[in-house]
Write a structure and sequence with these properties.
The chain is of the alpha/beta class. The chain folds into 2 domains: about 5-15 and about 90-200, HAD superfamily/HAD-like (Rossmann fold, 3-Layer(aba) Sandwich); about 20-85, Putative phosphatase, domain 2 (DNA polymerase, domain 1, Orthogonal Bundle). The chain is built from 10 helices and 5 strands. It has a 5-stranded parallel beta sheet. It is globular and about 55 Å long. The N and C termini lie close together (about 5 Å).
Length: about 210
Amino acid sequence: MGKIKNIIFDWGNVLIDVTMERFNESCKEAGIVFTEKEVNSTHKDGFFLEYEKGIISDVEFRKELNLRAKANISDEKIDYIWNTMLGSVPLEKLELLNSLKEKFDLYLLSNTNSIHWNTYSKKVFSYKGLNVNDFFKKVYLSYELHVLKPDTLIFEKAVVDAGINIDETLYIDDSLINCEAAKSLGMKVIHYIPGTDLGDYFLNLN
């Protein structure tokens, strides 16, 4: 691996823990029905995909879940159900980010949505008085960019905006297809396996 100056992290399953079983159970209890293809831990489809692409609003998203539940669930309850899939960013990963940012320019690039991001980004990156903007030079989110991984356009938009060189950039994601998309542009990539020690992947970096 050549000289790396920039590291772009995925969010879900790389940094923040994702537990789909908890979300599935909450949906069943509320009577919300969807298919596994529509929403899983890596890629989404249908209106879930449209939501993470920023095509539909929070209001429209909540309305669709109510239609599926054939109920009138409050906004707060829907947000709670939607957020049950997310956990925390473990302390050791925050410590790793804090260490890496002294040597590399760190960025975050995530397929995500406004409810998840606005609910969790402040609290899960809270560490020794730091916040998400102290760890990353810039954060790139699919619902703001209106494009989703593995579309290479989302990587191109991030690289151009950040003003960084692709051949000096490492991308890390738990999705192999996303890694392949980044690699096709010339990035170095690490396919992270959830549950393994994230720090081990960086032991021999540079």
